[in-house]
# Entry
Amino acid sequence: MNDGSMKSLHDIAEKHGDEDFLDAASYYASHMDYSSVDNTIYEMTRRWYDRSHMYTEADKMLEDYNNGLTVLNENGSFAFVDMGQAF
# Structure
């Protein structure tokens, strides 16, 4: 893990605040609880992001954040990668 990398979604929420975290999580989470970061993170750890069941929604968001690929990253870019998620 690179210096400055986040270890958990809770770390990201703490750094950016609840509202910004929940907005960013909506790109990954199929079930959002906009009143609770904890409930949203709990659901994200239980739901698959991809059809092959390699990544949970939480895993994917954390990986993307640490690679600079979320709306929360300083450059503001968000590179969407279709992992075959079915809604």
